[in-house]
Amino acid sequence: MTLSRSADYERLTAIRASRPEEIAEAAARRQRRGLPAEDERLLIIAADHPARGSLGVRDRPLAMASRTDLLDRLRLALSRPGVGGILASPDVLEDLLLLGALEDKLAFGSMNRGGLQGSVFELDDRFTGYDAAAIEAMRLDGGKMLCRIDPSDHATVATLESCARAVTDLAHRKLVAMVEPFWAGRSESGALRNDLSPDAVIRSISVAQALGVTSAYTWLKIPAVAEMERVMAATTLPALLLGGDPPDIDAAYADWHRALSLPGVRGLVVGRALLYPPDDDVASAVDSAAGLVREVRT
Q1: Is the full-model pTM beyond 0.90?
Q2: Which of 7, 241, 285, 295 could bridge 274 with an S-S bond, Cβ 3.0-4.6 Å?
Q3: CB 160 within 8 A of CB 149
Q4: DSSP 8-state symbol, 141
Q5: Helix ranges restricted to H, the chain
Q6: Model pLDDT for residues 237-269, shown as the tens digit of each residue
Q7: Measured between alpha carbons, how far is 219 from 201 in angstroms, rounded to an integer?
């Protein structure tokens, strides 16, 4: 890890306090890159967890609490060869814009962060972040939405409706809608758990890919689970593999490697596993993931 560049972060606060219009100006002049070529696989860094109150990594409940430390890790990750872009909430993307870290990168805005981790309303995934109009105005490449489906919870239908509207609004602007579906349920203790069985992932994909008036610009963000050949047979949409917070990082790399060989899998969207690896060597973790993507592409 590199040390925080305190002058850079002091400048961020000064701009936000006195010249907030510079955020839009930075977005307007940002050098963008295009969507991936037909044979290209992507590595996207995810950093929208804090917006949902999810700050923990493995046994560190507040690992992501320091914004400057998170920005250090993100800047390092984005500087590594093979990293194609980032997925984050507005506050994080704006910091990175002002720091000049998003040049020639894909940038996806996180849209629904209202289902705070551990809350009684966790399944009520309200759209409290980006909307399609703001994503277009900020010259981002698309929007990401969490779509958890619990047949026993009335909040699910409102989330489905909101996600469908967002998919439609993004498609009208020819922007990618990255949908992250899970079949979910409450445990006896009341904790929300995602069902990662192949059948449940297939069921969640079936619902997610039909949201909105068109699926022309819809991508899926799904976990690498058992029987991925059967899972990927459930869709013709492009899919990116999510990283999560795996207890065994070596096993996670092996799962990603196997799944990346499947035709519909177009890359990885990984956050905590690469930004906060067990040995805290962000560059090495990112390079290893980029190597997986590069190897499969080759």
Answers
A1: yes
A2: 285
A3: yes
A4: S
A5: 6-18, 21-29, 67-79, 90-98, 132-137, 155-172, 198-208, 228-232, 249-260, 272-275, 282-297
A6: 999 999 988 888 899 999 999 999 999 999 999
A7: 15
